[in-house]
Amino acid sequence: MEVKDPAVAYEKKKYSIAEYLQMEKNADAKHEYFMGEIFAMSGAGIAHNTICVNLLAALSNKLKGNPCRPFNSDQRIHIPQNSLFTYPDISIVCGNIETLNSDEYNILNPSVIIEILSLSTKNYDRGDKFKLYRDIPSLKEYILIDSESINVEAFRINETGHWELEEYKEAGTALNFPSLSLKIPLIEVYEGTKQV
Questions:
Q1: In the chain, which end has fewer C-beta atoms inside a 10 angstrom radius, N or C?
Q2: What is the per-residue pLDDT across 106-155, written as a single tens digit (0 to 9) for each?
Q3: How many Cα atoms sit within 13 Å of 156 on the Cβ side?
Q4: Which among 177, 122, 161 is positioned nearest to 144, based on CA atoms?
Q5: Per DSSP, what are the bridge partners of residue 31?
Q6: d(C-alpha 76, C-alpha 31), whole Å
Q7: Is the Cβ–Cβ distance between 115 and 92 less than 8 Å?
Q8: How many other CB atoms sit within 10 Å of the CB of residue 5?
Q9: Which residues of 168-196 are buried (b: 16+ CB within 10 A; e: fewer)?
Q10: Phi, psi for 179 (deg, rounded to 5)
């Protein structure tokens, strides 16, 4: 999903989390929340959506019978450490799902987050958003998938607590998810796009 500037229709500049959650419950579109500000989200292009559906289908199939469960971009993630509420393209939770105040809407403990990059979001997803995601104690992998070319950046936390990068740029390779003990061929990820 693409993030736009805060909608000017909002009559005040800062909102409490409770106000945001109430507004989101009644909203027709999704919004991110960070430090009192609310940001409207817009739809995505065909390549972005194709990649997202391909990957979600592959993950759902490979994770059957596994304690890890994938979610699409309708699932909101909350990071109490920095106040962010956001809707990643794909998130995966392993084990018991922890939520804000035991609700059904705000997951706190994703193990893997996947964002499909577009021209307007790639800098934010690689930079500021990744900094915010790193505050999630349960997060093991952060995957960025370019929708314009075969290019995947897989960030994984190592045994010493540092993030390491592995890049994939060939259609014949397979994207490795060590924390999930599975691999998905990039040809499957990009199937139906102009990249393959």
A1: C
A2: 999 999 999 999 877 777 888 889 999 999 999 999 999 999 999 999 99
A3: 12
A4: 122
A5: 40
A6: 10
A7: no
A8: 8
A9: beeeeeebbbebbebebebbebbbebebe
A10: -70, -20
